[in-house]
Design goal:
A hairpin with a 5-residue loop joins strand 1 and strand 2. 47% of the residues are buried. With 493 residues, this protein is mainly alpha-helical. The chain has one domain. Strands 1-2 form a two-stranded antiparallel ribbon. Helix 3 runs antiparallel to helix 14.
């Protein structure tokens, strides 16, 4: 508990992620002046001489000021996230996604309650924070109704929602966000490198299956015996009204219809998304607009039919609320964009990548060990910094090009990061939704606290980390593609 308290206190003392990027930018300015004045240079694999540029010089300051707006506006993850979130956010705010989760979990057979709760938790990352707000309290109620401990429901749902956050069988808002940062890092070495939104899709589908099975075992064999004595009286779950049931039915039909239409658009020759012989080539490029349409239309229909949307003003109001929730991300994106732009312009990114890559090569350690160490580092840092995007915005410009130097592809680095960033979410005090879990646990155990939650969730972290890492190493060993249009290895030009 002392270690946990230390982690919590240390994490709370850290500045906001936006200010971390501001500090990082100032450090880049200072380092660029130092390195450029000692006239340090290095040759990249193509023979090009790389020299650090002084950002504190007249030219450097002018460049920074003249490109500040452009750096922000053209920041790849910004537009991607905003467009995707408009669709997903509307579907969440109107109640479509929470209603879909509610309907699904209440129809689960008792024997399949645990695996499907974990699976729904993993899939709930599509619905932003709906998994935390809706699924976890709902799981506790459903488990009580089934005559089981509510803590078991909380643990299973929390494990899926949080520890399995990066896994999914669908493309979520996280995929384009991470792909944008990965591409920025990759272009330090290869200016033309493209990281598709679907870079980790195949691997994340397999991860979903593995984590569901592992989580099922941990829940029933490890957590269940510790919570079996905590049983409360059965309660009736909240019943949806007639309008909401009607809205859910037709919205689900529309969602299924849209998925069929998009599939046919990719499968039929000469269809808009066919790809001229390459099955995924075209629609990969429009994944985010497709996500917007798939969620926006059913979400809008659900809102109209459930009478939560009465006119166009209501739609504009909901979208405004969605955008307001993205305010912190927009602030983060501004400072992150300046940091990354300054890092790249100064040449420090190239120098660090090449020097770091040469150092790693000289160590003579296998790539599997590098990937394992990288994942463990992400796990550790996640205990102190909760924001996934903030961490990866720092990680990507440094580690993506560095690992490219030793033959590890940007897509593989991204997949490794996702593992480390997910598994420790359930035990870190820095998880912004930890308070929700504490509130739910306190309903059933008086005097419970952070230690109660962490002791209950630690088996999931350990089991998910071991099984997920093993899956990644097996995937690499077999040479399987991580997703459409992605690679496992990178060869320097």
């Amino acid at each position: 508990m002392r270690i946990l308290s230390l982690i919590e206190k240390s994490g709370n003392k850290l500045p906001d992620p936006s200010f971390l990027f501001l500090i990082g930018t100032l450090i880049v300015f200072l380092l660029s002046a130092i390195v450029s004045n000692i006239e340090y240079s290095i040759f990249d694999p193509t023979g090009k001489n790389i020299i650090a540029k002084n950002l504190l010089s007249s030219d450097g300051i002018w460049w920074f000021l003249s490109t500040m707006i452009e750096n922000f506006v053209l920041f790849p993850p910004l537009g991607i996230v905003l467009v995707g979130m408009f669709g997903i956010g509307l579907a969440e705010k109107t109640g479509f996604l929470p209603a879909l989760l509610d309907f699904t979990i209440t129809k689960i057979h008792r024997r399949m309650l645990t695996p499907l709760t974990i699976l729904l938790g993993i899939l709930s990352s599509i619905a932003l924070d709906a998994g935390y707000v809706v699924l976890i309290p709902l799981a506790a109620t459903v488990y009580i109704t089934a005559g089981r401990s509510p803590l078991l429901g909380i643990a299973a749902a929390f494990a899926g929602v949080s520890a399995g956050f990066s896994a999914n069988i669908f493309i979520t808002a996280l995929d384009p966000l991470l792909a944008g940062f990965t591409q920025i890092g990759a272009r330090i070495v290869d200016p033309n490198y493209v990281v598709p939104v679907t870079a980790n899709w195949w691997f994340m589908i397999a991860s979903t299956i593995v984590l569901t099975l592992v989580g099922w075992y941990v829940t029933e064999r490890i957590v269940a015996p510790r919570t079996k004595n905590i049983i409360t009286k059965k309660t009736d779950s909240n019943k949806s009204n007639r309008d909401e049931n009607h809205a859910l039915f037709y919205s689900a039909i529309v969602t299924l219809s849209l998925l069929i239409i998009f599939y046919l658009s990719t499968a039929i020759e000469n269809a808009p998304l066919f790809g001229n012989g390459k099955h995924f080539a075209k629609w990969i490029e429009v994944t985010v607009p497709l996500l917007f349409i798939i969620f926006f239309i059913p979400g809008l229909l659900y809102g109209v039919l459930s009478k939560k949307i009465k006119n166009s003003h209501d739609v504009a109001k909901i979208l405004g609320e969605v955008l307001s929730k993205l305010g912190p991300y927009i602030v983060l994106a501004f400072f992150a964009a300046q940091f990354i732009a300054a890092f790249n312009y100064s040449g420090l990114g190239n120098i660090l990548a090449i020097c770091g890559g040469e150092f790693l090569k000289n160590l003579g350690i296998e790539n599997s060990i590098f990937l394992s160490c990288f994942i463990l580092m992400a796990v550790f840092i996640n205990l102190f910094i909760g924001s996934s995007s903030a961490k990866y915005a720092f990680f990507a410009p440094v580690f993506v090009p560095m690992l490219m130097q030793i033959g590890i592809s940007p897509e593989l680095t991204q997949a490794s990061y996702r593992i480390g960033d997910s598994v420790s979410n359930v035990i870190t005090p820095m998880n912004p939704y930890m308070i929700i879990i504490l509130i739910e646990v306190k309903k059933y155990i008086r005097g419970s606290g952070l230690g109660t939650v962490i002791s209950m969730m630690l088996p999931y972290t350990i089991s998910f980390l071991i099984s997920w890492l093993f899956l990644l190493l097996l995937w690499v060993e077999m040479g399987w593609s991580l997703g459409p249009g992605s690679n496992l290895f990178y060869q320097l030009p």
